[in-house]
Design goal:
Number of strands of chain B: 12
Oligomer: heterotrimer
Helix content of chain C: 25-40%
Chains: A mainly alpha (303), B alpha/beta (330), C alpha/beta (345)
Number of helices of chain C: 15
Shape of chain C: globular
Number of helices of chain B: 11
Distance between the termini of chain C: 50 Å
Distance between the termini of chain B: 36 Å
Chain lengths: 303, 330, 345
């Protein structure tokens, strides 16, 4: 049997095919991701190309409204930018920040969680108390704090240049305790299993046991957590940008678009803010539903 | 023999799954007479616990009874609704499981649980139930029962907890008790106490018992008759002495022989080669045929029903008196 | 080491071996409730020696400390007191050398937990080969793993499969193949058959006995099942609450058990031959090892206990009448156990 056929035949793939929610959210997520990643190729306009902008095109409504035109299917903003193109580029930014922040907290959380779970004792106590303290603050507060410190410490143009990385760090650092706790819990269970004892009798070192024996066995719950966290990280970024402390207007994300468009909501140009909002919801919801399905599918008790 | 209390006829339990339906029990038939202790033995996965679960109506989904019947005191109980079955459980059938913590509710005192059970199933008032609860704890050998009735399950040791479970299973005076590995989690020294207790109480009350265990020793000293299960079928059923000492079915004989003796050392234990087939790969004919030393052509084609053997009934073509044996070799 | 000396020195020896666990509540809670530290004496001064090529068994009920001894014997725990010696050398010292470490192995109880579910069987079996540098290169490892699988009655083709595809007995064979792969001399077997069905248990016991004969293995065998212990052991130690209460050659122990606990344990076992007859249960249950009874720890359950038994801890000494037997019992020492009377009858 080929690898693809085996994967298609696996229990996970079977449970996926049987779940309409999973299939639907996978399709939506795929559209969002492809639209975002391939924005430079697929988008009808380049919203950053100032030369192509024409103020005469500003505030064009979507195509289905009386004054709309098919040239801009969901309208233009105050600068005459094509909203669809702006959304695709913005989603690209949101996705990049979300994935990077999740990867950052995943890496940090796995390392610290494995260390705490396997070493136990004082190291475990110290790391987990830090995590506990951090969990008592809302994530967005921590992100605001990090962002505020970065703003105060860095000169303005330097800050604008590295704003993306500040946001990634701010969101990533506030999410690691969740990963660390999951990994620590699983590591403590696996650590006492007889296959780990068998490796210890052979004389395999702790670091190697952690990476070759324990880590592969905690990947399932980690994958679920990472998927769910991705949606939350995208939301966090959007919140920060909406509050004006996230990404600068030169690198707009969906959150930035919503904030900018928000100013025009009550003057009738609702499309400038509503469509980025819909895109954000579609992206986060589909990723979250996929995460929920994955959690149930990997839970042997529900099978 | 008096009319049986429990009659299981051609019971089929199936688990529908994505790769087809698995048959966990395949035409299981057995009886339990009033006051009788029937032992159920077999390897893990042979279907002994599944039979017990089907009788008490607690098959784990998606498992379902797909054929046959279960009759308790003349009443069909395999096709009852969940509500009706709930009333039968506790009132007419008591259950004892391996882990007492799955049966006892950690949030209530043992006294509350006993009185609750009795008041649900018996027509008695609170004071009477309370009095009887203390009596039951005394009966199962809990010291200082009058005080301990206020204690929570976690305040008892493992052996004492299993005694409480026995009290709980018997307090509504059921006609049948299904005990699934009641002593497996206990140490040998405590096991003997619990078995002796279970036997004494059920004998006093005339309760029938289905005793499910993989421990032949427990069966040998407790059961009146024993059913040996293999791959979801009854391989042999008969009086306990006959099955232990002179098993007719080659599988039961091999199973008994492979038990290490305490009385002497043997150089090499008799063993049955191979393993019980998985439910999705049960061979045609007799399920035991690939491992059987007496196999002949008919065993590979035709499934044997329970046939009268010397002192028992065995599902084995060796005991078909109508057809001449066509053994290839013995 | 000369040939003669290698024969004299037992392959494994426990000298007054102890292992205590701190089971105190966290420091803050202890301070608030004004409680002291609490120590669980899982193993409390155990001594025995295992000559090369023989099987020493430790038998007892749950919580008696036999599994802790098993873990001490392969260096999974450091001792809290006394010494574990591998061929006369301190175990921790011996385990620093790869050449010595590969000579010891362990077989575990639960065949479902002792194999990493995410590893292929050939990788599991080859793990020691790789760690000890016995074989290198994918082809050599696969070939060696295949040979080991054949040795334990599986097929080399099974190496490509995952543990969940095997039955309990087959998994225990894989576990044995892994333990054999470093070509060890000393195997610690912690309840190797107690999770298996009885017909499969016979297969595994026969396999282990055959391997011992063919490879000259030395076993430390841990079990709660007296009948199984009788089948495999040369010498047996009976443990109760962290101590050995009786140690004797297997034949002697099973024909003339001396300690009241050993005798009670044997009487409590249901025997197949006596279908329908009562067995004699031991009164009471095993007390908590955190707070064991004073003197002889068996005294609350013992029919022969007197004031001395409640006050003074008995030493493990040669028994009156059966000098091959070491027994820790005041009643046996004083001749109160009625042994002479039984022997005469």
């Amino acid at each position: 049997m080929s690898a693809i056929a085996r994967a298609w035949d696996s229990d996970l793939a079977y449970s996926f095919r049987r779940s309409p929610t999973a299939v639907l959210s996978a399709i939506v997520a795929l559209i969002c991701i492809v639209g975002a990643v391939a924005a430079p190729v697929l988008a009808p306009y380049n919203p950053f190309d100032l030369a192509s902008l024409d103020l005469m095109d500003a505030f064009n409504p979507p195509a289905f409204m009386p004054e709309g035109s098919l040239a801009h299917p969901i309208g233009t903003d105050d600068q005459g930018r094509d909203v669809l193109s702006a959304i695709m580029y913005g989603a690209r930014m949101s996705l990049f920040v979300g994935v990077s922040a999740t990867a950052f907290s995943l890496l940090l959380g796995v390392l610290l969680g494995l260390l705490a779970g396997y070493a136990g004792g004082t190291i475990d106590a110290v790391l987990m108390r830090i995590a506990d303290v951090q969990l008592t603050f809302p994530n967005i507060l921590i992100a605001l704090l990090v962002d505020g410190v970065a703003r105060a410490a860095l000169p303005r143009d330097l800050h604008d240049q590295i704003a993306v990385y500040v946001v990634i760090f701010a969101i990533g650092i506030s999410d690691w305790p969740r990963f660390a706790r999951t990994v620590r819990g699983s590591a403590m269970v696996e650590r006492n299993k007889e296959y780990v004892l068998a490796a210890r009798v052979i004389g395999i070192g702790p670091a190697r046991i952690m990476l070759t024996h324990v880590l592969p066995n905690v990947l399932g719950p980690l994958l679920v957590l990472a998927t769910l966290n991705l949606g939350l990280a995208i939301i966090s970024e959007a919140t920060l940008s909406f509050l004006g402390v996230g990404l600068p207007q030169t690198q707009p994300s969906l959150g930035t678009l919503i904030r900018v468009g928000n100013d025009f909501l009550f003057s009738g140009e609702w499309w400038i803010t509503v469509f980025p909002g819909v895109a954000l919801i579609a992206m986060v919801l589909s990723v979250n539903l996929l995460g929920d399905w994955l959690r149930d599918a990997l839970n042997p008790r529900l099978r | 023999m008096a009319a049986p209390l429990l009659e299981v006829r051609d019971l089929v339990v199936e688990f529908p799954g994505r790769r087809g339906t698995l048959r966990a029990l395949d035409k299981v038939s057995l009886d339990i007479a009033p006051g009788e202790v029937l032992g159920m033995v077999g390897e893990s996965g042979a279907g002994k616990s599944m039979t017990g679960a089907a009788i008490i109506g607690l098959l784990e989904p998606p498992g379902r009874i797909a054929g046959g019947s279960i009759t308790l005191g003349g009443q069909r109980i395999d096709n009852l609704s969940r509500r009706q079955m709930q009333r039968i459980r506790g009132k007419r059938i008591g259950a004892i499981f391996q882990d007492p913590l799955t049966t006892l509710n950690p949030l209530y005192t043992v006294g509350d649980q006993l009185t609750e059970t009795m008041r649900t199933h018996l027509d008695i008032d609170a004071a009477d139930a309370r009095r009887r609860a203390v009596g039951w704890l005394e009966a199962v050998g809990i010291p200082a029962a009058a005080d301990r009735v206020m204690a929570y399950p976690h305040q008892f040791s493992g052996g004492m907890r299993q005694r409480v479970v026995i009290a709980l299973a018997l307090c509504a005076e059921p006609e049948l008790v299904v005990a699934d590995e009641p002593t497996t989690a206990l140490d040998v020294s405590v096991q003997a106490q619990v078995i002796a207790l279970l036997r004494r109480l059920t004998r006093e009350k005339g309760t029938s018992v289905m005793l499910i265990t993989h421990d032949m020793g427990v069966i040998a000293e407790t059961a009146d008759r024993v059913a040996v299960m293999y791959a979801g079928r009854v391989a042999e059923i008969g009086p306990v002495k006959s099955v232990v000492k002179a098993a007719a079915h080659p599988y039961s004989a091999g199973l008994m022989a492979s038990i290490p003796p305490l009385s002497h050392r043997v150089d090499r234990l008799p063993q049955i080669d191979g393993a019980m087939p998985r439910l999705n790969a049960i061979p045609q004919g007799c399920a035991y045929n690939p491992r059987c030393p007496h196999v002949f052509d008919r065993c590979r084609v035709e499934r044997p029903e329970l046939l009268p053997a010397v002192e028992t009934r065995a599902a084995c073509w060796l005991f078909d008196s109508h057809a001449p044996r066509e053994r290839a070799h013995v | 080491m000369s040939e003669a000396k290698a024969l004299e020195v037992p392959i494994f020896e426990a000298r007054d071996l102890s292992r205590h666990f701190d089971v105190s509540k966290p420091a803050l809670q202890r301070l608030l409730s004004r409680e002291g530290r609490r120590t669980l004496r899982a193993v409390d001064g155990v001594s025995f020696a295992i000559p090369r090529g023989t099987t020493f068994s430790l038998v007892g009920e749950s919580g008696c400390g036999k599994s802790t001894v098993a873990r001490l014997a392969v260096g999974l725990y450091p001792p809290s007191g006394g010494a574990a010696l591998f061929e006369g050398q301190e175990l921790a010292e011996a385990r620093k050398s790869v050449a010595q470490r590969r000579r010891m192995g362990m077989i575990f109880q639960d065949p479902y937990a002792s194999l990493n579910p995410r590893w292929r069987v050939s990788d599991i079996v080859a793990e020691p080969l790789r760690a000890f540098g016995i074989a290198e290169g994918a082809a050599a490892l696969r070939e060696k793993a295949g040979a080991l699988l054949r040795q334990v009655g599986l097929s080399p083709a099974d190496g490509g499969r995952y543990p969940h595809e095997f039955s309990g007995g087959q998994r225990q064979r894989i576990s044995i193949a892994r333990a054999l792969s470093s070509n060890p001399d000393f195997l610690v077997c912690d309840e190797p058959t107690s999770a298996l069905d009885v017909s499969v248990q016979a297969q595994i016991l026969n396999l282990m006995k055959g391997l011992q004969r063919d490879l000259g293995l030395t076993y430390l065998f841990i079990s709660h099942n007296l009948a199984v212990v009788r089948q495999v052991s040369d010498r047996v130690g009976v443990m109760y609450l962290g101590r050995i209460v009786e140690a004797a050659p297997a034949e002697t122990l099973f024909t003339v058990p001396r300690h009241p606990y050993t005798r009670a344990l044997m009487e409590a076992i249901p025997d197949l031959d006596m279908a329908g007859r009562e067995r004699q249960p031991v009164a009471g249950e095993v007390p908590s090892p955190i707070d064991p009874p004073s003197g002889c720890t068996f005294n609350p359950r013992c029919p022969l206990a007197n004031g001395r038994c409640r006050a003074e801890r008995p030493a493990l000494i040669a028994a009156r009448g059966t000098p091959e037997t070491l027994v820790a019992c005041h009643a046996v020492e004083e001749g109160r156990d009625g042994f002479e009377g039984r022997a005469a009858a």
